Structures are given as structure tokens and as C-alpha cells.
Fold this protein.
Amino acid sequence: MTDFIAHLSSLVAAHAGLAYFVVFLAALLEAVPVFGSLIPGSTIILAMSALIGSGELKLLPVMLAAIVGAVIGDGSAFWIGHRSEREILGIWPMSRYPGLVGQSKTFFNRYGTLAVFFARFVAPVRALVPLTAGALGMPPLLFSAVNIPAILLWASAHILPGALAISALHHYGGLPHHFGKLIWIAAVIVVAAIIGAGTWWRYRGRGCNLSATVDKRTG
């Protein structure tokens, strides 16, 4: 892990523009319907935020990259759903995951407009709620009014903690930036793995029931 952090730091120092693009791409791909549920975009952004505290990346460009990527990703998914309406929820690849589609519908029907806000922080429905919102007829202006504040809060919650933690460990704990990054990235990976395993287990246990629910509603 130490060698990986050292290699990552040197790579970022030499190619900072590429690092910002990775943040942008991670935020954008999380909004891809179905496939976004499998992309650890949040984990990547959380881990890379440690490089802000060590001075290898700048806070503002990282924030902008994450925000713009998420806005484009969510907005594109919403417009696909808006143009295709409910038909999009029954074609590939959504047709391969009726349980996930059903979970997204249930989430949207339960929370209404606020589902767009909450979904930014809930995997795996984050990758389907914008599409579902468009398909179920949510007005575009209303979607943007809820989605953009959610993205701003999401980006802050994923970037600022890492940047502040590394700075605090260095200034108040006396730890070199190298070890601070090691601790933060290792913690992010472990927590993400635990949450991912828990989410997978929960979804696996509910998948059949959700599929049956969708079949009954669409049948």
C-alpha cells in the first residue's frame, strides 16, 4: 500500500490534469443507468481527496470536476428518461435488472421530488433515480432545482473531509503527508468494501421480491 501511495502521488504530481479528469469521469459514470451501480466513483473521489491536503491537487479544480461530472451524468440520464418516458425502464439493460428498477421506482414513489436529492447519497439507486425521474414525468426545471443542490452537497461531503483530515493529521498530529494519505486511503477502501458488501447482501436478499413486485405492477 505504501508503494502504491508513493506511485500515485508521483503520478498525480506529474499529471495533475489527468487526476482532475479521473475525478470528473468517476462522478459522471456513477450516473450511468445500471452500470453506475458497479462503478466505485465515490470511493475514487474520496480517496483522491487526500491528495488535496498534501498539496498535490487543488481544492477548487477537484470540486469543479466532481460537480460538472455529476451534473452532466445525472442530467443526461434524466433527459434520456424524459424523452423515452416509461418505455426506457423496460428495455436493455434495465430489463436485465428488474429488481434494481423496481427499487428505484419504489424509492421515487416513496420520497417523490426529494428522491432525486436523497438518491445522490444512496447506492445503488443513485444510478437509476435520475432516469426514473425523467421517465415518470418529473418537470426538468424541478429536477434541476433539486438535483444541483444535492450534487453540491455530495461533492463537498466527498472532497472536503479527506482534504481536511490530511491537513489535520499533518499539522496537529505531526504525521507526514505520506502517512496521512496512507491512513485515509486505506480507511476509505475498507469502509467502501464493508458498505459495498452490506449493500450487495441486502439487495441480493430483496432482489426476488422486487422483481415480483415489478412484474405485478407492469403485468
Notes: The CA atoms of residues 21 and 65 lie 7 Å apart. The radius of gyration is 19 Å.
